[in-house]
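SEVERITY: medium
COMPONENT: batch folding queue
REPORTER: lab tech (J.R.)

DESCRIPTION
The queue accepted two submissions in a row. Attaching both inputs and their returned structure tokens so the on-call engineer can compare them side by side.

ATTACHMENT 1
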Amino acid sequence: MSKNDNNNGFLVGLTFGLTFGFLSGILLAPKSGKHTRAIIMDTSREWKEKAEELTTNTKDRLSNAAKMGKKTVVQLKEEDFDNLDLDNENL
């Protein structure tokens, strides 16, 4: 087993443990079911909003990066590739 597999297993176990502990703590807390469900709903809405915000930000950043990459390729093609000697054996 490689070192990377060990790290992935640890991270999966850590994530599972944190999630299980969080849910157990909320569900076993000495509060009424109605209050606990309200907390869970509020928390899930917050997480959903954060996930949507992160997704939107990531899409915007990837779009900008793609535009910049296309612009760079066009510039390279116009400036450098025309002068590049591809038959040169030293490349």
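ATTACHMENT 2
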Amino acid sequence: MIIDKPKIIKNHCFTELVYQRINRKLKLNYSKIAIETFIKTLLIETPLINYIKKGKNFYILNKKHQVRITVNSTTFRIITVDKTINSI
């Protein structure tokens, strides 16, 4: 399966509830624009090897910021962003 990273970056979108969810899960207090900028930056800087399609979602693991972004593979809506723990 070929993952079209540029298409995900170009077409990703947000719902009203996801802004609150991202702030809550990452313990942030970002504005909508700040969240959009942050997510776009993560999508751009994450290497393609860390983009995984499983079922109906893409899972994008950004090791630098220790987060995993879940994106619907049909609508490209951001579903959630979770903190991850690096194993050393």
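NOTES FROM REPORTER
The chain has a mean pLDDT of 95.
No errors were logged for either attachment.
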